[in-house]
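Q: What would this chain look like folded?
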Amino acid sequence: MAEHGNAGVGEADPLKSVADAMETAVQAARDGASDARAAVDRAIPAISQFVSRFVYTTSYSISYGVVFPAMLIARAVPKDNALVHGLVDGARAAREMAEDWQGVSEVAPAPATT
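A: My prediction, written as structure tokens:
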């Protein structure tokens, strides 16, 4: 009978080891999830700043690349000639057309007189 009692004690020890190992694994998973969440929380502002800076730099480069040559050409063309008058009138007509599409009018309609 004494042998039977010792066998029971010997079996409980491996089960406790397994339970301890599972508890350690669960705790490690919780700690890992917490660490991952903290890493993401630190990474989001850095990623946001990178994307913002990238968009700004790209927009700046495109606008500079378009506006600088256009202004260089505009400054090289004499002011009082048919080409300039045509460009100005065309730009004005395009702006008015775009405003009409948006429902915005620069000039208010004159009130009706009776």
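Residues 2-77 form one domain.
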